Amino acid sequence: MAYRISLGPLLYYWQKTEMLNFYASVATSSVDIVYLGETVCSRRHEMRPADWLGLAQDLAAAGKEVVLSTQTLIESESDVIALRRLCAQNDFKIEANELGAVRLLANRVPFVAGPFLNTYHADSARWLAGLGATRIVPPLEMSRDNLAALLAEKPAGLETEVLVWGRMPLAFSARCFTARHLRLNKDDCGFRCIDYPDGLVMNTRENEPFLVLNGIQTQSATCLDLTDQVAELHRLGVDVLRVNPHSQGTLDVVEALATARDGHTQPEAGRYAPPGAAPSNGYWRGEAGMAWQEEQHA
Question: From residue 126, how far is each of 36, 99, 156, 254 by CA, in Å?
Fold first, then answer.
């Protein structure tokens, strides 16, 4: 199977040293494509723009394709200035995660249409390709059948990348729910996200994990796991399989995908979920996203 493996942008707020150590491990891993940059909250400043660019250069020197991801929710003039500065650099390809970034990149440089552009059907894919998109990342809610329909009609040469592992980013808000949970003002949050390396789990009244708070982002409490679908994703024509970083297990999943690509052991579905997170694949089956059903292979 000839797919590439990508590592999505780090969605959590880690200490700078932790981030650099993590990406040093990524440099020697089987990851082919690395997405870098702060996509959730512009208040997070452990890594400054110059730090991200320096890391991008290091990973490119290690043979990785590096893509810089834009912030998903633009909230202020300073966010706009940072976005324009990022889109103006020409050293690395950009992943556009909202339409303002698309506008800055369109008809100027090739770019990746990120998962938050909601590319649900072929008309959207054709429109983005016409503006210069070379790869699309369909939304994580896409079912297997809808993905197959999109791939059957997408423009020739437009690559497709699908998230196969990681907690699912479900929503963004102007409000910071981590700060609200801790009874802090958003503008005086104390950067407390850094205390939750995989986000803050929110339980139901029945004490069942339901969602994860990650600053202004709300994630699933379950961990999407389509690693047992690699053969089907390849058959459909998916070019890149994306793994979202977590504090534990990320590179184990990457190596399992690489092993399957080499024609050896298939990944064991559900094995690599982060501690405390149940696996899920409901969206893939057209069901509730948090549902889980292991594939019965012949």
Answer: 26, 15, 10, 30
Quick: pLDDT tens for 181-223.
999 999 999 999 999 999 999 999 999 999 999 999 999 999 9
What is d(CA 10, CA 193) in angstroms, rounded to the nearest whole number? 13
**Distant-in-sequence, close-in-space partners of 214: CB < 8 Å, separation ≥ 6:** 11, 12, 40, 169, 178, 193, 196, 199, 200
What is the CB neighbour count within 10 angstroms for residue 15?
11
CA distance 195 to 187: 17
Q: What is the pLDDT of residues 201-211, one digit of tens each?
A: 999 999 999 99
Structure tokens at 240: 């890149």
pTM: 0.95
Give bridge partners of residue 201 from the DSSP assignment. Answer: 212
Euclidean distance between CA atoms 173 and 280, whole angstroms: 24
pLDDT digits (tens, 9 = 90+) for 117-162: 999 999 999 999 999 999 999 999 999 999 999 999 999 999 999 9
What Å distances lie between residue 198 and 40, 101, 179, 263, CA to CA?
A: 13, 27, 16, 32
Write down the residue that tokens 């810089």 correspond to.
68
